[in-house]
Design a protein that fits this description.
The chain has 67 residues and is an all-alpha fold. The protein contains 2 helices and no strands. The longest helix is centred in the middle third of the chain and has 19 residues, at 15-33.
Length: 67
């Protein structure tokens, strides 16, 4: 499978499906843009995720979340 999508074909089976997705996607973006909650800094989110991961059993020691 080629990693570059063709500019002349769509991943959707119908034009209606593509338009439905487009409306859904635009609504999600608009909701995000209009969200007035304060943004969380990247490092704060990563610190929280590291705590969650550290609390889990070490079944996959090779899979680390190192920066």
């Amino acid at each position: 499978m080629n990693g570059t999508p063709s500019s002349t074909t769509s991943e959707f089976e119908t034009t209606e499906a593509a338009e439905t997705y487009d409306r859904w996607f635009r609504a999600k973006v608009a909701t995000s843009i209009n969200d007035d909650r304060p943004a969380r800094p990247h490092e704060a989110v990563m610190a929280q995720l590291r705590k969650i991961v550290a609390a889990q059993p070490d079944d996959h020691a090779a899979d680390s979340m190192e920066d």
